[in-house]
TrEMBL record:
Residues 8-350 form the FAD-binding domain. Keywords: FAD, Flavoprotein. It comes from Streptacidiphilus jeojiensis. The keyword Nucleotide-binding does not apply. This is 4-hydroxybenzoate 3-monooxygenase.
Length: 398
């Protein structure tokens, strides 16, 4: 049962993706009241296929918030990834290179299901099919969210508004254009992603650089594989038959020794994902805050999108808790600068992984030699490998 929405709240949260749901959970634990408004229905939000790698810090905060019971049972801890290039395989050992940090394979759909269940059981009001249409009084002491719920127009008075409403959300647009700046980069390729009912052919993720383009072997569970192929922008998934996909994956993952084979199984989903980097600064304007994809987008090569969202709202929840307990706005005032520091590091890492592993349409043999030199350096130097491992497993929150 969905709780009725009050007419006012302390923190109005727009969006029930990982950012909005986790923020609501953390605020609830601190006794701060909030309301979450989500435009889609529950089934849609819980089934939306997206990220699948959780950093150590994300797992830690899910545990602290009481949302990791199933993650601890079903999540798959991973201690490394494999880089494949020039027909060779090289493993990056995270705990050995980072002083014990690792990542978990646990799908975003499952994180969202766990957080929604907790929220509906004992959390603050969470309204599905509640589309926010406007943020009024963005520069006032009492911003108002206007939204439509079950065909009825409603308003919610807030002390603070947090836009956790993703890249196409309304809260960022409510910040006057002159008070924000967006930095962007798009990439000349996309990913064709599939889900397949077959056990993953590797225990760990495999990132492959090949003359035919990038490929990634990932997984959602011990019986479901998630695989990606670099494809040209504008690709229609319908142009890729199942057999063509498997043949291309085989070609890109091939090792010089010729002793590796990808297990095939029924493909249950195909989609094309464009690659983009974007950061909006600052992440706060007056009483409006931005968190997660509402403020920044990364290409998925570094597995950072969901983890950055979790980091933002952890910092923000601590700031609201500080205000609630001591009346100090110090942490709220430093929220944007604290997050942007980490965001730009993740932006660079995601860009680095993307540009090092993909083959651009106009790429010259010189460019390819530079990529291979970089990958060789990571394979040969513990220092270079440690830098990759530290970024991949996740940097400390602050
Ligand atoms: C197609 C796709 C595939 C991805 N794949 C990967 C991947 O493989 N690996 C990876 O690391 N990352 C991936 N990402 C990135 C990762 O999933 C995101 O970074 C993560 O979802 C961010 O969480 P969020 O809560 O900030 O935003 P979102 O998950 O986008 O949630 C925003 C929520 O706000 C709601 N909303 C929007 N507007 C309104 C409104 N006006 N009123 C009310 N609600 C609103 C939306 O319905 C949505 O539920 C992918 C992203 C996309 C879009």
């Amino acid at each position: 049962m969905t709780a009725p929405a009050p007419a006012r709240t302390t923190v109005g949260i727009v969006g029930a993706g990982p950012a909005g749901l986790l923020l609501a959970r953390l605020l609830h634990a601190s006794g701060i009241d909030c309301v979450v408004l989500e435009s889609r229905d529950r089934g849609y939000v819980e089934q939306r296929q997206r990220a699948g790698i959780l950093e150590q810090g994300t797992v830690d905060v899910l545990r602290e918030s009481g949302a990791a019971e199933r993650l601890d049972r079903e999540g798959l801890p991973h201690d490394g990834i494999e880089l494949r290039f020039d027909g060779r395989a090289h493993r990056i050992d995270f705990p050995a290179l980072t002083g014990g940090r690792r990542v978990w394979v646990y799908a975003q759909t499952e994180v969202v299901k766990d957080l929604v269940a907790l929220q509906l059981a004992d959390g603050a009001p969470l309204l599905f099919e509640a589309q926010v249409t406007a943020v009024e009084g963005a520069e006032s002491a009492q911003p108002v969210l206007r939204y439509t719920h079950q065909g009825v127009e409603r308003r919610l008075e807030c002390d603070y508004v947090v836009g956790c409403d993703g890249f196409h959300g309304v809260v960022r647009e409510a910040i006057p254009a002159g008070a924000r700046q967006t930095f962007e980069r798009s990439y000349p390729y996309s990913w064709l992603g599939i889900l397949a009912d077959v056990a993953p052919s590797s225990d760990e993720l495999v990132y492959a650089h090949s003359p035919r383009g990038f490929a990634l072997l990932s997984m959602r569970s011990p019986t479901v594989s998630r695989l990606y192929l670099q494809v040209p922008n504008g690709t229609d998934p319908a142009d890729w038959s199942d057999e063509r996909i498997w043949d291309e994956l085989d070609a890109r993952f091939a090792l010089a020794a010729g002793d590796w084979k990808l297990a095939r199984g029924p493909i249950t989903a195909k989609s094309v994902l464009p690659m983009r980097s974007s950061v909006t600064e600052p992440m706060r304007h007056g009483r409006l805050f931005l968190a997660g994809d509402a403020a920044h987008i990364v290409p998925p090569t570094g597995a950072k999108g969901l983890n950055l969202a979790a980091a933002d709202v952890t910092v923000l929840a601590r700031a609201f808790t500080g205000l609630h307990r001591t009346g100090s706005t110090e942490l709220l005032n430093s929220y944007s600068a604290t997050c942007l520091n980490r965001v730009w590091r993740a932006e660079h890492f995601s860009y680095f992984m993307t540009s090092t592993l993909h083959t651009a349409p106009e790429q010259s043999p010189f460019d390819t030699r530079l990529q291979l030199s970089q990958l060789d350096r990571i394979a040969a130097s513990p220092h270079a490998a440690a830098e990759l491992a530290a970024n991949y497993a996740g940097l400390p929150l602050v």
